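[09:14] KT: can someone run the structure on this one? pasting the chain below
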Amino acid sequence: MAAVLLTFSALLLSPATLADQWTFTSGEQPVALIELYTSEGCSSCPPAEAWLGTLKNDPQLWKKRVPVAFHVDYWDYLGWKDSLASPAYSARQARYVRSGNVSQAYTPGFVVNGREWRRWFRDRALPAPVKQHAGQLRVRLEGDRLRADYAPGKTSREALHLNLAILATGVRIRINAGENRGLLADQDFVVLGHSLTRSSTGHWETRLPSIKNIAHSRLALTAWVSRIHDQTPLQATGGWISHPVK
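[09:31] RB: done, C-alpha cells below
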C-alpha cells in the first residue's frame, strides 16, 4: 500500500476551517511522552497498539500523558511493507539505543520520558509522575501556521528542538501478507508526520510537517521540546485538532 505525502493544509484544512485556532498548554509539572515503536509486520505488535489505543479514554490524556506510535521500517523484509513506517522513525529508535536509553531496537518497544519501559510486558503500570519543575510549553495553531513558546523557568537559555507530530486515531488497515496476514489492524495515535525545529530562544514560528494520506477518524497535534543532542523530552503537550468522523 503506497502512502502519499501531502501538506497538512491540503489534507485537512478547507477554507471554512482555516480560521480555526487551537492552543495547548502544559502545566509546570512534566507531561509524560509515551512512545511506541511498532510495525504492521510484527506479529506481537497488535496487543501493544490496542493498549495504546485505550489511552483515548484516559482522563489524563494530553494533561499528563501524550502517546505517540512511531512505525519502523526494519521488518518490511518479512513480506509486508508497513504503509505507516518511515526510516526516520527507525533512526529515532536507533538513536535511543546509541545513547544507552534503550537496550536494543525491537518491536513492540516502549519509551516513556526518553527511557526504555519494559513493564508493559508485565503489569503495564506506567511510571509514577515525576514531581519537578519542567517549565511550561505553549503551542498555538492557526491553519497550518504554528507558534510555540517554552519557558523552562531558568534564566539561562540553551538551544532546543521543538518536536511536532501529527497523530491519527481510528486508522484501519487490512494486512494481506507477512506475519499478520489476514489481520484487520486498528491503530491509534499513529504518527503521520514528524518535524524538528531548532531555537536558541525558546520561541518557534513554523509550519506543520507534511503527513501521509491515510484514512482516519480523528487527528491530534503533539509537541515536545528536547535538547539538541538528547531526545529525552523536557516537556510535552498536545490535543485534538479535528472532530471525530462519524
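[09:33] KT: thanks! Residues 168 and 219 are 5 Å apart (CA to CA).
[09:34] RB: yep, looked fine to me
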